[in-house]
Amino acid sequence: MDVEAPKDSDQRPAPPARGKAMQRFLVALNCGMLTLGTTGGPLLSRLYFSKGGHRKWLSAWLETGGWPLLLLPVAASYLSRRAQDPSALVVLTPPRILLAAAGLGLATGADDFLYAYGLSFVPVSTSAILISTQLAFTVFFAFLIVRQRLTALSVNAVALLTVGAVVLGLHVSSDRPAGVSKGQYWLGFLLTLAAAALYGLVLPLIELTYKRAAGGGRVVTYALVMEMQLVMGFFATAFCTVGMIVNNDFQAISREAQAFELGEARYYTVLVWSAILWQFFFLGAVGVIFCVHTLFAGILIAVFIPVTEVLAVIFLHEKFTSEKGVALALSLWGLASYSYGEYSDAKAAKKKAALDAQASHW
């Protein structure tokens, strides 16, 4: 659990083979969790609304309500450290980083509500394309906050993702769910875009927090990342809990379960699995940022747009209109453009490093 982040590897001796294997395992594990959360979370959230659920704050609460699941790995990490060193700290994260994680948690809670409110009025297949614009926002905010370089290909990707969202916006009446007015659809459309923008800001801020945590020679480990995510999940859930109390959602749950189209038992099954899959999403996202970087997390979220689209058509019987097809093609084009740019940059950097090493040898 105490594998170090790879960002400062140039300042430390090369890690042993066991450390590299653990690093690859963590990358695969977090990519897997992010994949499950990206595809499964939105489907179950939309299923909740389409089968009789109406509580937006409850849906938002479920997106981070699974944070207690992190208590197990965090406790296991502490016990492991305690076995090696009886004086090991209970909490690895410094107070100022915990405070930053609390602020990020509140921002995540607000993002959860924006997303849940938007998803209550727009289909998953539309929401997935709109959420893909978070890559554009991530590129922009990563440039401002963590100084990630902008290239012609990344700017092209931003432009294509923006045009894709505009194409959807010009045909708002083509895929409105039954019972949703044009005004409600537009509200859901704009709130989903706002959710994408806010999460595009949160991702670079998480990476910036990691860099601040690494100040003073401190090692950032995966155990610290889980502690941060636990704090973020707690405060995001607390934010949504306040909304549920004000909106009387807790009192309405039992009544809503009885009226749920799939039955009371399946109502609670949908809620539980929503919480689990969304926790996979958030833990996977911060884990990918830790193991790789912010923009790779954005790419991975965007790359599963077509998977979510297909699953929504198969399981929720949503319409796949020509406008969605054009928007999806533009999104994938933008994603391919950005991914090729990242690949070219990585290849050039590797070649330069090899030439520098050869020059220093001679």
TrEMBL record:
Superkingdom of origin: Eukaryota
Organism field: Aegilops tauschii subsp. strangulata
A Pfam family: PUNUT
Keywords from the UniProt entry: Membrane, Transmembrane, Transmembrane helix, Transport
Membrane topology: Multi-pass membrane protein
Membrane spanning stretches: 25-45, 57-76, 96-116, 128-146, 152-173, 185-206, 226-246, 267-290, 296-316
Keyword Cell membrane: no
Protein name: Probable purine permease
Any GO molecular function: purine nucleobase transmembrane transporter activity
Localisation: Membrane
Similarity comment text for this entry: Belongs to the purine permeases (TC 2.A.7.14) family.
Cellular component, GO annotation: membrane
Main location: membrane
Keyword presence, Translocase: no
